[in-house]
Task: structure prediction
Amino acid sequence: MSQRRHPEARQTKESALYIVATPIGNLGDISSRALAVLGSVDMIAAEDTRHSARLLQHYGISTPVTAYHDFSPEARESALLDRLARGETLALISDAGTPLISDPGYNLVVRVRAAGHKVIPVPGPSALVAALSSAGLPSDRFVFEGFLPARRAARVQHLQGLQNELRTLVCYESPHRIVATLEDMLDCFGPARQVVLCRELTKTFETIHGDSLSNLLPWIQADENRQRGEFVILIAGATVNPDQQEEDDEAHRILTLLLEELPVKQAAAMAARITGQRKNQLYRQALAMQTGPAETRKLPEP
Ligand code: SAM
Result:
């Protein structure tokens, strides 16, 4: 594709660092402003130059590219600052999505702002926002945890600290740890807590699947294909009253057992008699346990 000219190109003449979001899978998800900025700055700083070469090539962008990541020597950062001091314009991109969101760039942005240069966001894709906007969990307030600790003991300790968080929790997870992390979440949050898995967003095998933790774990364990690719995990916030949470977990355990033997309607009626909870609510819960409540879209698996 040939390089596009855009009115934004004129604006990049003022010295500044542009923070440019790039697609998280579907190359079509890049804004015309992002293309104009990438095509007109003096230099692009990229997390991985080989990775970004594919995107830039696809859009016919021939701007010089230099590597910049969190482990870059300080001298690399200083060289970028020198360029800004000379009046040049720079763009920062990461491998996918929005830089600085679990991606490199924080130190650079701090130094560029401290030196008095402009930092200009060019917003676009981020797996965090894509997942939150389509999972069907409360999105008015949420907590983003980035990547959880890789080691199990540290991860469990971290999750225990989040047990009573009322807002929707969002975290990124790698395919190697997805099952272990869901096991830890089951231990820490209880079997009834609703979780939505967003896998391979914007890609061919995009899957958005929600269920209680006690159902989600066997679902993902049942098929290795469901464990492949990139994941965002969203966890419903805790119920306001911790005693209520215990009662909900107990009702969930009872419903799970009854559903093994009885049809949904009878299981809900029996669970209502045992727990004292409302029959209608337990009926809805039992239906969701059988069908998966928040499975908004599921494309064919590999
Ligand atoms: N800066 C990126 C952003 O704005 O989303 C995130 C970068 S972080 C290093 C990469 C993680 O984001 C992946 O391990 C995965 O958890 C999540 N992620 C990125 N792309 C995704 C996608 N297409 N579907 C689901 N999760 C994705």
Remarks:
- Residues 242-261 form the longest helix (20 residues).
- The CA atoms of residues 131 and 198 lie 6 Å apart.
- The radius of gyration is 23 Å.
- The chain has twelve helices and eleven strands.
